[in-house]
Amino acid sequence: MAEKEKPLARYAVMGNPVAHSKSPAIHKQFAHQFGHHIEYTAIEAPLDGFTEAVTQFRASGGKGMNITVPFKLEAFKLAYHLSDRAKLAGAVNTFWFEPDGAIFGDNTDGAGLVHDLTKNLGVHLKDKRILVLGAGGAVRGALSPLLKQHPALLVIANRTVAKARHLAREFAHFGKLEACGFDELTGKHFDVVINGTAASLKGEVPPLPVNLFAKDAVAYDMMYGDKLTPFLEWAELHGAAKVADGLGMLVEQAAESYFIWQGVRPETKHVIAALRKGG
Ligand code: ATR
Asked: What pTM was computed for the model?
């Protein structure tokens, strides 16, 4: 059957709020690359109605979904089968639905981050000293993909130190992992510093010591915006050689989801460039 004659495969991103989501634009561009005939919409589920919204979407012919804030933990609980990386992340951002009704849950966020760093930005993580700021859901999802790149050391620094220590203990068997508070970073230097805190959302920067960046260091913010995030502005001022926001991570996690659904990996470079231009 020609691609155009097949029934329209339906996909969506579900969140609350979700109107701002770039995922429909990203997946439309992916589908265009392959001539795939799909629909990808943004669905705002009521805060207390995620499960019902998923059921409705499936009943209307939904084949797969992305899940965004604040439903990633609920999605984790709802999935019948979980990938190993979803189990490690404790959160799900990708569903696909089997004809027998089973929901599969995966998490492509961490893979998206590592792909953006290593493939798009050319940052080699092996034997590097990595600092991750924050100890919430976003950081949890990134830890095992980062540690699989065999850094020399990964330090988790968080405002609430106990949460960083908890994560470090949980992921200790994946590599050399330490935890501390921001004040304990004084005198330490890192090759890659990744901001996974929600501070940028509030226009804030975690209280970091100056001289944090080693020579040629990279600063990465999982957040993105029309201009540099406060953390990246700070990083530029304080000696980071290269700064990058999380737009690439967003596109890469989407590409990974697309691969799960369609079995093909989209080209991402031009999609990232188009989004930067507001496309
Ligand atoms: P997410 O799922 O996006 O990671 P989260 O689980 O609520 O969101 O985690 C938010 C993270 O940002 C936490 O590490 C939080 O620090 P605490 O554990 O101490 O709450 C961190 N965070 C939020 N606002 C911050 C700020 N202004 N400065 C530093 N860290 C901040």
From this structure: 0.95
